UniProtKB/TrEMBL annotation:
It comes from Sesamum angolense. It comes from the Eukaryota. This is Uncharacterized protein.
Amino acid sequence: MYCGAIRFHRESPGFCCSNGRVSLSTLDVPEELRLFFGSSQMALHFKANSHTYNNVFAFTSFGVTYDKELCRNDKNVYTFRVEELVYHFLNDLMPKEGKGTNLQLYFHDVENEVNNRSAVSDKLKEELVLMIMKILEVNPYFVLP
C-alpha cells in the first residue's frame, strides 16, 4: 500500500491512489476548524454545546404538529410522533417584543449582535460566538444582508 488509506475489505492495495501515481497534498486546516477535532478547553466546550451554537446561527427553527399526549415523559418510553406537518418555522424579520431569535438576529440590533447571540443561552461563550461570526463572513456560501 502506498498511501496508508483505510480500504474496504475487497479493495486492492493500490485502488485509492493508483499504486502511488496519484498524490494528494495536505492542506493546512484553518485554526477555527480545530474546534471540531481539537482537545483544547475551547474545543471540548464547542463539541459539548455544538447544537446550541448551531441553533443560535440558524435562520429557521423546527416546527411540527405532534401528539402532545404521546410525547409526555411520564410514560415509560418517550415517543415522538408527527401527526400532520413538519416544517421550518420562520419568524418575522423584526421581533414584536423582547429579543430576536433565529433570522431576526441578522437584522435586529446588529450593533449588539455578539451580545444578542450570546444572551440566547448561558452555554454560549462570547469568544466562540465572535469566532463563528468571523468564519461566516468569509464563507462564500453565506451572505449577510
